[in-house]
Structures are given as structure tokens and as C-alpha cells.
Amino acid sequence: MSVFHCYTCDNLDSRMLDLHAEASEIIGLPVKYHVFKIEELAKAGIPPHQGHGWFMEQILQNFPDENVGFIDADCIVSNMDFVARAEERVSKSGTMFGIAQSANHLPSRNEIYAAPAFGIINSAIWHELGKPSLIADYSYDTAQRLSHELIEGNYYVDIVMPTSYSGIGETWALGGVPDSYGIGTVYGDGDVFHLFQSSKGPSYLNLLEYQVERLRDGAVFE
Question: What are phi and psi of 156, to 5 degrees?
Fold first, then answer.
């Protein structure tokens, strides 16, 4: 795996993208940004909430025998040792790694899955399973179906759990447990920070700025 792929749209706050690029540069995480125009996606019949999964499928099609990394524009990582360990576990299991989420707005709300906000997928297993849809629908969120099928098939799926969140704004249940994570969630041992709700504008951008400042000082997230 040589690069993490980041799906973004042209309506994203440019300050967030700048912070994301800085955070990635600080730790040496290679990220390729794929910027799509909302208008062009609409013309292609791809609704905004389905664009991410559609994009992931295109990437996995192009790299059929590799570990493929994905990262959201509102999700940053604090150290490359964590990234290396995550990729090693995917290589050993042959499946996937991701941060823990539950789709609280869907019937599968009590299921914990490996979310691709920061995730690594072994493309070969996706092909082997018949390329299950990664597109969000009325049953599963983005890439949740793959995680679900792997777990149901008794494959090992590596999921890193949240350890803290800001307490500002909305919170969500994880696996049916209320208030398990929220806007500005830290995962692992200060390894991953996911802002969440980035599509709602710059309201919580200061939370991302704070964590990037920690990276500048050589610290992990808190």
C-alpha cells in the first residue's frame, strides 16, 4: 500500500482540507486527494450520500490484489507506527481494518462495523466475496455491508474503538450503547481523530485545529 485515498467534494471547506494535508505531512502519511464536483456527480446520477461508496468501489476495482487505504477529509492520524500496525494486521487477516462506528439512522443501528473514515481493505477479499456493494443504502452505511459479510462469515475484522470525544454537539450509540462517541472522537491510544459532521460546515473546525496543533508539538490526540 503506497497511498491513502481521500474522497472529497468541491463544497468542502478549504480550511479543513488544508489542516488535513498538514496533519498528513507532519506524520508522513501519503494521501491522494480525489476532488469531485457535486454537479458532475448529480449528472451521473450519484447522490451525495452515495458518492463515497461509489468512489471506493472504483479504487478497489483498480487495485484488485492490494491493501487499499482510505481516509476521510475530517479524519486524521497521529503516527505512522499505528498505520504500519494496521496494515500488518490486514495483511495477516486478509480482510479489513477500520474505526468503530454504528449506523444509528439505519435498521443495522446496533451493529458495530469497521468504518472507512480511516480504513484499510484487502481488495482481494472484496473481489472474492463477489464485490459486495460499498454504497450507502437503506440497510447499510458506506462500506458497512463488507464489514458485515466478513463478520458473518467468521472472518477476522480489525476494529479500533473510541476512547474519548469532545462532548460538544451530538453523540451516538455504538453497538446499542448510548453516548459512546460523538463529534470530535479519538480512537485507540490517541491514534486517530475523527471530527464527524464536517458536511455541516465550519462549526466544529476548532476541534480539528486543536488536534493538528498537538501534532505540531509532537503529541498524539486527546
Answer: -80, 125
